[in-house]
Design a protein that fits this description.
Number of strands of chain A: 6
Number of helices of chain A: 10
CATH architecture of the largest domain in chain A: 3-Layer(aba) Sandwich
CATH topology of the largest domain in chain A: Rossmann fold
Distance between the termini of chain A: 58 Å
Shape of chain A: elongated
Largest interface: A-B, 30 and 30 residues
Strand order of the largest sheet of chain A: 2-1-3-4-5-6
Number of domains of chain A: 2
CATH superfamily of the largest domain in chain A: Response regulator
Largest sheet of chain A: 6 strands, parallel
Order of helices and strands of chain A: EHEHEHEHEHEHHHHH
Strand content of chain A: 5-15%
Oligomer: homodimer
Chain lengths: 213, 213
Amino acid sequence: MTRDRISVLLIDNHPVVLDGLKAVLETFDHIEVVGTASLAQVGLEIARQRRPQVALMDINMPKLSGIDAIELFRRELPDTRIVMLSMHDSREYISSSIMHGAVGYILKDVSTDEVVCAIETVASGGTYFSSGVRDILMADEARMEANPLTPRERHILGLIVTGRSNREIAEELGITPATAETHRKNLKRKLGIATTAGLIRYALDHGIATRAV
Amino acid sequence: MTRDRISVLLIDNHPVVLDGLKAVLETFDHIEVVGTASLAQVGLEIARQRRPQVALMDINMPKLSGIDAIELFRRELPDTRIVMLSMHDSREYISSSIMHGAVGYILKDVSTDEVVCAIETVASGGTYFSSGVRDILMADEARMEANPLTPRERHILGLIVTGRSNREIAEELGITPATAETHRKNLKRKLGIATTAGLIRYALDHGIATRAV
DNA sequence: CGAGGACTACCCACAAGTGGGTAGACGGGC
DNA sequence: GCCCGTCTACCCACTTGTGGGTAGTCCTCG
């Protein structure tokens, strides 16, 4: 290692997570928590002064979302390596974080050992994604070739885009609402998208539906 | 009038509406119901043979939606004047119907007199929109200049596009979920859009949000 | 003929959105 | 000084979606 201790900045708007993480990390001699913040803006300010090697940042924060904050960090502090900390394992959050420049993404349900491992890995130049995240990333690439949407699913996706409820979709297709629900669930699972809004953006992006009303 | 009786085709997948409307219309000497159908495709088939002057069609039907059916009618039977019959007064349905070529749009809660009036009007070449619909159409044009979205609303619309729930929006903006809910309601009211899906399409259409994840 | 995918349908408990409202605080403009 | 728009917040009853499942029927492909 270039320095004996890895400097880490913690940003999380949940005091419990913030303090807990700080306490745990401080039991490791090779890690130094140089600051904590509950808001991204404050974290950025601290980072300007302390120039941490690693920033561990929550993805969901008031005022300034973690995703948006990644960009600000990258612009002002390109050497600080950003690891996102999230409770959500949705494909959108993960790929969005990576695209914005995060080099790590760990779920909040991982062990503290794994957090330490992530810090070490990204500090030495690597990338770290917790196991659940890796699965999602790999699945994301393999899934679409292995599991293309069925015609029925594309049809239903189109109806979802127009704002139809499960009941309305069911009426329109002559099936039960429960089945429409299943198709909706399968769509989300196949695409790794957690929200209906995400499904709509996906459909518009991939020409499965058009915005024409 | 060119013909003594106006030939009308009824298409609605609700038997009650279909039969009720037929019975009522047949009490008028100058109106002749030349056919009824509970599916758009069947209605189209009947229309091919009977060439009705007016087609009264439900907007929500299984298999083939009324909106899509308008196009088929326009293509094959350009002389048949289409009046949409709907329970929904959402801006999207109405403007979509008009754009596809309907010359009338009446809500199902209107009086039968108004239905007769609509048939007479479109048969003689005019357009007919029931009072509630007119309000919405006029409002639609006037509203956006009179009532532009506030910055706060645009911000919240952007968050809705990313699939945030009211609770998540509230956390992100430091307000209560109830307030986020109010903003969401106001957005729908201002834009005359009934569904969250519609809000998303609107936002993407108007550059208030981008699909970039 | 057996496997697997597609489509269908239902179960549960819980979370969230819907669509009506009402209402207070603040600030700018007439 | 008052009006109006904005932003905030809450009420209710109701519907809908969520995220786990399981499981049956068809049809096709090897």
